[in-house]
Structures are given as structure tokens and as C-alpha cells.
Amino acid sequence: MAALSDQLLVVAIMAYLVAMVCHAAEYAFGTRSVVGRAATRELVTAGGVAGGASVPTEAEIVEAGPPRRAALAGRAAVAALVVAALAHLGCVLSRGLADGRVPWGNMYEFVLAVTFVGSAAWLVVLARRPAVRHLGLFIALVEVLLLGLAGMVLYAPITPLQPALNSYWLAIHVTAAVIASGIFLVGFVSAAMYLIRLGYDEGRPGFPFTLGARVPDADSLERLTFRLIAFAFPIWTFAVIAGAIWAESAWGRYWGWDPKETWAFISWVVYAGYLHARATASVKRSTAAWIAVLGWATMLMNLFGVNLFFSGLHSYAGVK
Amino acid sequence: MATVDERPVSTAETPPPTGRVHPLVALLRNSWRQLTSMRTALILLLLLALAAIPGSVLPQRPVNADRVTRYATEHPRLAPLLDRLGAFDVFASPWFAAIYLLLFVSLVGCVVPRLRDHVRALRAAPPAAPRRLDRLPQHAVLSDHDGDVSALAAALRRRRWRVAVRGAAVSAEKGYLKETGNLLFHFALVGVLVGVALGSWYGWHANRLLVAGADTAFCNGLQQYDEYGLGYRVDGSDLPRFCLELTDFRAEYQPSGQAKSFRALATLDADGAPARPVSFSVNHPLRLSGANVYLIAHGYAPVVRYTDRYGQSQETVAPFLTQDDMLTGEGVAAFPDANVDPKTGQRAPRQQVAFEGLYLPTAPASGPFVRSTFPAERSPALNIVAYRGDLGLDAGIPGSVYRLDQHQVETGRLKQVGAKLLRQGQSWRLDDGTTVEFVGTRPWVALSVRHDPGEPIVLGSVVMLLAGLMLSLTGKRRRVWFRVGSSPTAGTSPTAGSSTLTEAGGLPRTDYPAFAEEFTQLIRDVETSGKG
After folding, report:
1. pLDDT (tens digit per residue) in B309-342
2. Distance (Å, rounded) from C-alpha B3 to C-alpha B474?
3. Of A48, A225, B209, B418, which residue is most buried, by most CB within 10 angstroms?
4. DSSP per residue over B282-306, as a string?
5. pLDDT above 50: residue A179
6. B478: closest CA among B75, B4, B144, B132?
7. DSSP for residue B356
8. Segment holding B465, helix H or strand E
9. Inter-axis angle of helices B38-57 and B94-123, to 10 degrees?
10. Residues of chain B neighbouring A262 (CB-CB closer than 8 A)
């Protein structure tokens, strides 16, 4: 089972890579205006598209008439993403079976789970709003980077849980943290692409802004960011609360400013700041998006910085 | 605050005061408006996040005081400056407190007026229909409707709308829970702060190391603890009375040496009840009334017997502090009262004895014997260095009981007289004919005893906080209006069954993309129920 999990990780990474290449091909072959038209056309109908199906309505994009090769590449990209997500799920599940417990007992497993939630959340978004499909390139990019890092740097062999982790709170607290982090990840991608698109719309030259040519329009990216973060924020809040309840029974206090706790608090405050900025008319939407990017930076800091550079009570990374 | 902006944005929006206002009053009023503005709240939030960063980067005294001391020796120039800034106790520093207190003042200043407005809105009827319903984001004309206003109102009420009928017009509003949740969230935050404050005033905590055995039992009292901290409103006499004796400690390990489980078995003698056996472990503390006992760490305490030059035997149980996951212990077995002539009661000068070194629960097959290879006691060995001389205990300076006073060694008042690896049961004859025997070990546990009366308040508050947050983020405030009769000024009640035109309009008051669907569905339902 453990070997199967490791093999599936490789399959997942390869599939994400394929998805990335296909998305890139679609990017390269598709003309700007066509994608733009497809996006606006679909936005009108997006409200009516029901969730549930994991594959977006490809036909609509093809109808709008982008070059054949681009449409094909786009379809292949989504198919590759679905394959990648399935392999990814298999990787997490087989790891859990091999462990005989919830598979998030160390940093490697945690990153596997977070990236899976990110990928699943992306497929849900894709099913509901096919118009944002072009973000898939960047989702796949982030997935490849994080999974590669997990496999190469963070990999830890299967070991039983430490006594402190041996609690049903592991399933509650860490699952909530995994789900929230995964959704924040997608929120980060859409916030970053919103900022790039905004720069493109303002006619700013240079590398990151040229990427904005083929992503969905700024308003729908901005709304997507808000909805993702507004969805993940209560889950993150719950994760922190569940962690505090667990900390009370394991360490004797519900809050002790351990580095992990401190950074969880920082992320919570920054995302709360995002929600406030988004709700304030006098604060520009781009400022809010920057706060969302900052929020993801604090999440990354908590995941990598705190686990690898600080020692504290949450030192379960298992990275040698 | 999450999605509804009802804070004043800046002072510029408020009308200029009429008549003369004292400049001081104006300044105060403007400052208050600035403080309670959303923009200020946002800046304070980000500032709070920024201010928390040093708390994770620099060692913190309440978390780990030893690391602060180490940092201070490594950075002799920087540390005093940082210390004056409170950087080693960020979360108790005045500047951190200033940020969160300002934030909470801003929060209260914002939500109290909003609570007032919300209560007013809850008691008021939904506002009258605008003159032109067709100017609203949603608009429909009900072609086939009987124009029965009371039936229309009843249909809306069934769908849990708040309804007001004004002549031929029906106003309805829904989604008040959004603002209710929003206010609940913010007041719950205040509740969390109150709970934390009460906990720090009326709570206390204390730590000690407890060695197994009836002779080393302890009773809850400040002098029994190695370290303690009391809240501002707590003194030593407030501590609940109980005594605890560690009877056994059970640990299971993986073949790799990684721990599987720990369990401490003890006898509890609580006030007014007969002694009873209890057990506690990581994640399952011993919960007593007024105090909880947590298992923090564990290790071994070698039992060492020393027979001095007068043939007098003494035994000491010396807890060795755990150094690594394999439970290598480091400590001192000291015999300050050794070599006292039993006839005269006089101690020969500089004849105190101590053994400093390592305890290995599983010693490696061959040297160096500096690190244990397994946490359980498979081949226990004591790797010690013997010292004789003046231990320096009479100076009255408090020192560590786990290390020898290095000053005494450096000045030659305490001399090294040999080193040896002792297996369990072995004894060793020193150069002066005295003997030392490694008798065995006893387990020890490090306990944290705590009481925090603020916990229930914090827990209740965070439950409300989460509920409020979800209501606030999922709620949607929206209004609909219906008007029967083509003339917008129709004041007379239309008779049922007449072929009047019924018009409807809808207004989402928050970001709510699916409102169009809900509105269409509502119109369809009302139309089918009110067919003429």
C-alpha cells in the first residue's frame, strides 16, 4: 500500500504536468478574442449551470469557435486534471490505508492532503463556472510545485502516530485545516490572476501582466476569490477552535502562542482583514486582493517556515 | 462587517456641525469617528498580524525561558535592547496590548450603533414601495393575478418574509439574520477577550517533577512546585487541596523507539475523599475540581547508594533530565551529607561527594556510552564521573539540582576522582575506599497543574462566534415589493377578482448573484397561488 501510494504520487505529478502543458498549449493556440468571447458568453449562462458534474461543459467553448487545436488542448487539460485528481486521491487514500489512520500525521501527508483539497475545490469551481477554465494552468503549476516539493523534500516513511497526535482531534482539527488551506490555495490563485488581469487591463507591459490576456475577466475573478475565501474562512476558524480545544487537553492550555498557533492567528487576522477590505466601499478591490495574496503567504509561512525553521509544540513535520 | 459596509468611511461624509463647537470637542469627536471607521479597523487588523510576527521569530519567555537566556548569551548586544522593547514577551507587551485594545474599542464603537440600528430595523416595518418598481434590479408584472393583497401578504409570510401592507402595496424583507450573525460574531469576540482576561486574573499554573514512590508524593501547594505562576487575583491559599503519588508509569514503544503510548498511574488523595487510584496520559489529563493535571514529560531517576568512609550508607533518587527521544538522561546524584563522623557529627572538610553523568536506559553494545539506543530499559547503564570536595551548596545561591556547580569545579574546590560505567546492581570502589552502587531506577513524570476559570466563557464565545460568522457570510438581505393596480398612487383597496395589474420589484441589499432566480421563482409561486 505504501509503495502504491508513492507510485500514485508520481502518476499524479505527471498528470498535473500534462494538464499544465495542455493548458499552456491552449493558451498559445487560442486567440485572445475568442477566449474572451467564450468567457463572456459563458458568464451569462454560468449562473444556471448546476454543480455536481466534474467535467465542464466543453461544448460551449467549442461552439464559440476557438481554433480546433486549442479546444482540443483545453479539453485534454481538463481530462488530465481529473486524472491527476483521481491519482492524487488514490495516493492519499492508499497512504491512509497503509498508515491505518487519517493520512495527515506528518508534513508530507499534510501537503498531500492540502493539495488534493485544492485540486478538488478547483474541479468544483470548474464545474460551476466553466468560464474560468484558463486558471487551470496556474492551478496545475501550483500543484506540481507543491507536490514535487512534498515528494522530494518532505517525504517521510510511514510511521505510527506519536502519542500526542493519537486523538480523535487529529481527524477533526487537521481535516478542517487541510480543507481550509486547500480552498485558500485556489483563492490565492484567483486573487493573483485577478491582480495580473487588472494590470493587463490597465495596459501595463511586461511579463506577469501578459499572462492576463487569456484569463477570465477581472470582475469574475474577483468575485470567485471572495466566494472561495468567504467559504474557507469559517472552516479555518473552526480548525483553530478545534485546535485550541485539543491543545487544552493535550498541553493544558487552549492557547499558548506556540509558533504554529501564532501563525494560524496571523492568517486568521489577515483573512479577516480581507473580508473587511472587501466589504468596505472606500477600499479598492485590488487592495483586498493583495491582502488575500498576503493571507496565502502567511499560510505558506505557517506550513513551511514554522515546520522547518522554528521548533515548537507542533513539531510533527517528520522531516530529517 | 463581513459583507455589509455600514461604517462611516471618513469624517468627510458627516455634515459640518451647525453652530459653534468647542475645538476640543470637535477634535475628540473626529478622533472617535476615525477610530471607529472601517479603514482604521482594517489597518489595526493588519498591524495586529504584523505585531504577532516577532512573537514567533524570537524566543518567548512564557513559552520557553531557557531559549531566551540562550538567545541573550548569543546576542549580548541586541538582546537587552529587544528585552526593553518587550520582544521576548510580545503578547504581554504594552504595544501589542495597545493594538488589540484599540481594535476592540474600534469594534465596540462600530457594532454598538449597528446593534441599535439593527434592533430598530427589526422592530420597524419593511420600508414602503418605491414609486417606480421597474427601476429596481428585479422587476416583473404579474399578468394573471387576482390582486388580493392580503393573500399576497400571507403567501410571503409563509415563506418567512417580514411583511408590511400599506394600502395596495406590500413590502417584504428577508435575511435579517445576516446582520444578526454579523453582530453576534463581533460581540462574541468581546466575549473571548473577557474570558481570556478572567483566565489570566483568576487562573494559575504550576509545574513539578514527580518521582514514583510514596516517599516522593506531593501535595498541591506553592512550595511543592518547581515553577509556578498565579493570576493577579489568586494567592497560594486559593489552590485546591489534593495529594498525588505516582505509583507507576507505563510506556509502549515501536521497535524503532518511537513512542506509542504513555500512561501515568497514581494515587489521588483529594480533600475529603478516600484515596483512590487514578491514571492520566497525554490527551487525557486528570481533571479535578479546581485544577487539571497534565502529563508533560517523563524519564528515569536512578537510585544510587553511597557507602562512605565511616561505613554509613545513603541512598538518593536523582531524576535525570531527558535529553532525547531515546530517553538519555543527564543529572547528578549528590551526597552533601556524606563522610560525617557518626561519633562527633563533624564533617571532614571537602568530603562531600557527587556523581554527575548520563543514564542510558538501553546502553549500546560498545562505547562510547553517551547516548541511549532505545527508550525502554533493556540494558540500563549509568555513565558517571565521581567528584569529591565542596559542592558549594552552603553559599545559599540557588543552583540547578541537575548539574554540579561548575564554579566549584573550576576553582578546584570540587575534584574529579574517576569515571565509570555502572550496570544495574554493580558497585564501584573509589580511590578512598568508599563505594557507590547503582541500585535501580524509578520513573518520573513532569506535571503541569493548571486552572483556568475563563475557559467556559471563551468556549461559549467561540461557539457563538462561529455561528455568527456563518450566518453573516451565508445570509442575504433582500427586499421585494408588490403593488396592485396600475396607478402607483392607488390608495383604495382593490376588490378581489378585478382585473388589475400587479407589479413586483426586488432589491438585493448584499452581494447575491442568485437573487434573480429566487425572485423569478417567488413570482411564479405567488402567481400560481393567486390565480384569479
Report:
1. 888 899 999 999 999 889 999 999 999 888 888 8
2. 10
3. A225
4. TTB-EEETTEEEEEEEEEEEEEEEE
5. yes
6. B4
7. E
8. helix B455-474
9. 140
10. 52-53, 55-56
Of A234, A262, A310, the CB nearest to B52: A262
Stretch 175-234 of chain B: residues touching chain A, C-beta under 8 Å: 196, 205
Look-up of cell digits 506535571: B447
Q: Cβ neighbours of residue B350 under 8 Å, at least 6 residues apart?
A: B388, B389, B390, B413
Spatial CA neighbour of B332 closest among B280, B379, B371, B382: B382
Grid coordinates representing A42 are 459563458
Q: Which residue has the cell 492550555?
A: A253
Give the whole-angstrom CA distance, residue A182 versus residue A177.
8
Local confidence band at A43 (pLDDT 50, 70, 90 cut-offs): very low
What's the Cα-to-Cα distance from B66 to each of B59, B72, B73, B501, rounded to whole Å? 9, 10, 11, 81
Cα–Cα distance for residue pair B531/B528, rounded to 1 Å: 6
Q: At B279, which helix (H) or strand (E)?
A: strand B276-280
Separation of alpha carbons B104 and B44, rounded Å:
10
- Out of A242-251, B4-13, B146-155, the most confident range is A242-251
d(CA B386, CA A295): 57
* Cβ atoms of residues A26 and A73 within 8 Å: yes
Give the DSSP H/E element, type plus range, for residue B19. none
pLDDT at position A2 over 70 = yes
Cell 470567485 found at? A224
Instruction: Give the three cell numbers for residue B436.
Output: 557507590
- Are B458 and A254 within 8 A, CB to CB? yes
DSSP single-letter state for residue B255: T
- B13 Cβ under 8 Å from any chain A Cβ: no
**B21: which 3 cell numbers?**
463647537
Confirm or reject contact between B452 and chain A (CB < 8 A). yes
- DSSP 8-state assignment for residue A170: I
CB B344 within 8 A of CB B363: no
pLDDT digits 0-9 by tens, B21-72: 888 999 999 888 888 888 889 999 999 999 999 998 898 888 888 889 999 9
Distance of alpha carbon B438 from alpha carbon B242, whole angstroms? 33
Helix (H, G, I), strand (E, B) or coil at B147: coil
Whether residue B14 is predicted with pLDDT greater than 70 in this model: the reply is no
ipTM of the complex: 0.86
Residue in the block written with cell 459640518: B16
- pTM equals 0.86
Amino acid of residue B154? A
Exposure string over A92-130, b if 16+ CB within 10 A, otherwise e:
bbbbbebbebbbbbbbbbbbbbbbbbbbbbbbebbbbbb
Q: State the CB neighbour count (10 A cutoff) for residue B30.
A: 12
Helix spans in B58-175 (H): 65-74, 78-84, 94-123, 149-158
Contacts of B45 in chain A (CB under 8 A): 269-270, 272-273, 276
Q: Which of A49, A190, A48 is nearest to A132 (CA)?
A: A190
DSSP B220-236: SSGGG-SEEEE-TT--G
CB contact at 8 A, A170 and A249: no
Listed residue (B3, B14, B9, B13) closest to B38, CA to CA? B9
Which chain B residue has the Cα nearest residue A260? Answer: B56
Out of A79-88, A268-277, A306-315, least confident range = A306-315
Distance CA B92, CA B225 (A): 24
Alpha-carbon distance of A293 to B149, in angstroms, equals: 51
